[in-house]
Amino acid sequence: MARSQFNSVADYLQIPDGHRDRLLYPKRAITISVPINMDNGEMAVFQGYRVQHHLTLGPTKGGTRFAPNVDIGEVSALAIWMSWKCALAGLPYGGAKGGITVDVNSLSRRELEALSRRYMQEMIPFVGPHIDVMAPDMGTNEQVMAWFMDTYSMYQGRTVNEIVTGKPVSSGGTEGRREATGLGVAHLIFRSMERLQLKPSDSTAVIQGFGNVGSFAAIELARQGVKIIGASDHTSCYFDKRGLDVNAMVEYAARNGSLKGFSNELAFDPAQLLVQPCDILVPAAIERVIDADVAAKLQCRILAEAANGPTTPDADAVLDQRRKEIFVIPDILCNSGGVIVSYFEWVQDLQQLFWGKSEVLTRLRGLLDDAFSRVMERVEKDDISHRTAAMAIGVDKVAKAKATRGLFP
Ligand code: NAD
Fold first, then answer.
1. 115, 183: one domain
2. Pair (67, 138) in one structural domain
3. Number of domains forming the structure of the chain
C-alpha cells in the first residue's frame, strides 16, 4: 500500500524514475534477535526491527509496535508513512518505525520489562536524541517508554529524557500527549464540518476502535454535541440510533480492559458497523478495514482516518469516484496530532523547559490548522483527492530537501 500510494503521488508530482527509489527505500532497516529469560526458566528469542526511512530533514521519529504480525515489511510501510506525515506537519524529522513480533498478552509484566529493556539495549548503536527517537504504538505504552528511556540513560550514565516520547509526565513526558491524537482527530473533523456546513448538534458518528485514539476522539466529539451512535473494539460492537453513553463506555473499558459485556441490548454486528448511515465515520483501530466493497457501501459524509492505513488502494479508487459525497481526512493528516505533540515533548526535553497543557493543545491546533489549510488549497488548486494532496505536500517537501542538499559525495 505504501509503495502503490507513493507511485501514484510520484506520477502526479512528475518525479523522474531515477529519483523515486531514493525517496522510497529506507535508509536503514535493522533486524535484531532479542533474547530474554522467561518466567518458566526457559530462554526465548524474539525478532525485533527498526526501519529509519530518511535522514534528510533531521533525526527519524516513530513508534514501536509489539504485535504478533509485526515483520520488516509492515514496519517499513509504517516508517514511510511517518515520513510523509512529519513532512506534511512541518516537523524536522524523517519517519521511522520499529517493533517486536510478540503477543504482549502472553507475557508477564516482568517478561515485558525484560523484552523492552533488551530491545532498547540492542538498538543503542542505531538510535539517539539526534539520530532516531522512538515512541509508543500498538502493544506499547507510557510504561514501556519509561523502561526504554531508563535503559538508554543507564548506558549513558545520565538521564536522557529526549531519547523517546510518549513517556509518563513524571519521567519527562509532556502534558497532553495521551489525548493528543484523539483530540487532533476531533479538531480536524470540526474543521471539515465547517466546510461542509454540518452542525455538531445535528450530526452522528460511528467509531471503530475504542483504545487511546478512538476513545479520546469519541469523548471530544460527544462533548461538542455530536451523537455517537456506534462504537466497537476487538471484543464487541454497540449501536444505538438514540446515541450511546460515551463516558459510561470509557469508564467501563478502563475498568474491564475492553468493551466486552457493556450491554446485551445494544450489541451489534461488527461487520455492518462501518456501513451504517452516519455523518462521521472514524476507523480508529487497525489497517485495511475499508476495502473496495466496503468503500462502495459507505454511508458517511466524513471519513476521518484515525488509524494508520485503514483504506486499501482499491478502496481509494472507489472513494475517488465518490469524492463529492464523502470528505476524506487522510490518515497522515487525521492522526498527526500524536506525532506533533511527540515533537513538542522532544523539544521540551531538549530545552528542559516544560509547557502547560493549554499551551501544548493551542500549539497543536495551530499546526493542525496549518496542515489542513495547505491540503485544502492543494485539493482546490489541482482538483485532486485529499489523500493525494496530503501525500504530495509531504513527498514534495522531502524531494525538495534532497534536491537542494544534493548527493554526497
Ligand atoms: P490502542 O491499542 O490503544 O487501541 C486500539 C483499539 O482498536 C482497541 O480498542 C482494540 O480493541 C481495537 N481493535 C483492534 N482490532 C479491532 C477490530 N478488528 N475491530 C474493532 N476494533 C478493533 O491503539 P491506538 O493507540 O488507539 O491506535 C489505534 C490506531 O491509531 C492504530 O492504527 C495506530 O497506529 C494509530 N495511531 C495511533 C496514535 C497514538 O498516538 N496512539 C497516533 C497515530 C496513529
1. no
2. yes
3. 2
- Element spanning 200, H or E: none
**Tens digit of each residue's pLDDT, the chain (409 residues):** 899 999 999 999 999 998 999 999 999 999 999 999 999 999 999 999 999 999 999 999 999 999 999 999 999 999 999 999 999 999 999 999 999 999 999 999 999 999 999 999 999 999 999 999 999 998 999 999 999 999 999 999 999 999 999 999 999 999 999 999 999 999 999 999 999 999 999 999 999 999 999 999 999 999 999 999 999 999 999 999 999 999 999 999 999 999 999 999 999 999 999 999 999 999 999 999 999 999 999 999 999 999 999 999 999 999 999 999 999 999 999 999 999 999 999 999 999 999 999 999 999 999 999 999 999 999 999 999 999 999 999 999 999 999 999 999 9
Tell me the CA–centroid distance for residue 138 and ligand 1, in Å: 7
CA of 147 to the centre of ligand 1 (A): 22
Residue nearest to atom 34 of ligand 1 (CA): 308
How many residues does this entry show for the chain? Answer: 409
- Boundary residue ending a domain (120, 143, 175): 175
Strand arrangement of the beta sheet that strand 204-208 belongs to: 237-239, 227-232, 204-208, 280-283, 302-304, 327-329
The closest residue, in CA terms, to atom 35 on ligand 1 is 307
Its pTM stands at 0.96
Parent domain of 241: 178-329
Q: Which residue has the cell 455523518?
A: 279
Nearest CA to ligand 1 atom 21: 233
Q: Could you tell me if the CB of 131 is within 6 A of ligand 1?
A: no
Distance (Å, rounded) from C-alpha 67 to C-alpha 286?
A: 12
